[in-house]
Amino acid sequence: MRIAVASGKGGTGKTTIAVSLLLTLAALPDADRPSKLQLLDCDVEEPNAAIFLKPVVEGQEEAGIMLPEVDTDLCTHCGRCAEVCAFHAIAVFGEKVLVFPQLCHGCGSCAYNCPSGAIKEIANPTGTISWGTVPGTRDVRFGQGEMNVGEAMANPIIRRLKQAMFKDADDGVTILDAPPGNACPVVETLRDADFAILVTEPTPFGLHDLRGAVQVARGELGLPVGVVINRTGVGDDGVLRFCEEEGVPVLLTIPLDRRIAEAYADGAALVEAIPEYREGLVALYRQILALVEGVA
């Protein structure tokens, strides 16, 4: 099962929930523990799950996209490459061919459709992926992507991370820590997930961004979703009323608690600093199993 943890905005506690759920499942008795367990940090602009998990890195590789390179001796300047490029990353002006790397998505259409074979693709690294194990656990795997400074597109790195880490996880549980927001990197993270946990806070800002997150996850991608409301005790009941009206289950509520902030500041996972939260996360996991089975 692939469980994505997302949020419509940053700072809601998304990574806190993702890491704590992973550690909670890792500590379950053998009869209840998933056969395989891993976390993928897909927030490739600012990955920080490793701060809490302190993984032992076993490998790393570059990730990116393939960019077109035009052989001017073979090019007939027919303009076919520009016609098929949906992202306007290549243009033909007379006998001049221009490639705009910042717009290219590496789809390969230009090379595939070039009638003279004048275009080949060359690797353009835009970041890295790394993987390893979480110490103190029984073979819990960890992977993260990290985008190079100044790069614009996160999707190729997220896609490569998922390809690398999904090889042997089909019969276990993978937790995907998504980037904040509702843009393309979030969609790429949620793609092929079985369930989306949406973490929010009980404020007008949290409600506003939760609406968008529900629309993306459930409305556009057709995923079953559930909500975790963090920092309850402040704000208003707008999020609860929205979830009730839309039929979105509230899986867990976490009160505003100074101890959580102190643990976060120390780089400690929630369930390590305050073990009593494990029970609520186990109940959350069981609700997800029931909801996914119900959809299936």
Question: Please, could you describe this protein's structure?
Answer:
The protein has 296 residues and is an alpha/beta fold. It folds into 2 domains: 2-63 and 127-295, Rossmann fold (3-Layer(aba) Sandwich); 72-117, Alpha-Beta Plaits. It has helices at residues 14-26, 49-53, 80-84, 109-113, 155-165, 184-190, 204-220, 238-246, 258-265, 270-273, 277-295, and strands spanning 2-7, 37-41, 56-70, 90-93, 96-99, 119-133, 141-147, 173-180, 195-200, 225-232, 250-255. The strands form 2 sheets. The protein has a 9-stranded mixed β-sheet, with helices on both faces. It has a two-stranded antiparallel ribbon with strand order 4-5. Helix 5 (155-165) runs parallel beside helix 6. It is elongated, with a radius of gyration of 22 Å. The model has no long low-confidence stretch (mean pLDDT 94).
Please give the structural blueprint.
Blueprint: E1 2-7, H1 14-26, E2 37-41, H2 49-53, E3 56-70, H3 80-84, E4 90-93, E5 96-99, H4 109-113, E6 119-133, E7 141-147, H5 155-165, E8 173-180, H6 184-190, E9 195-200, H7 204-220, E10 225-232, H8 238-246, E11 250-255, H9 258-265, H10 270-273, H11 277-295
Parallel strand pairs: 1-8, 1-9, 2-7, 2-8, 9-10, 10-11
Antiparallel strand pairs: 3-6, 4-5, 6-7
Helix pairs in contact: 1-11, 5-6
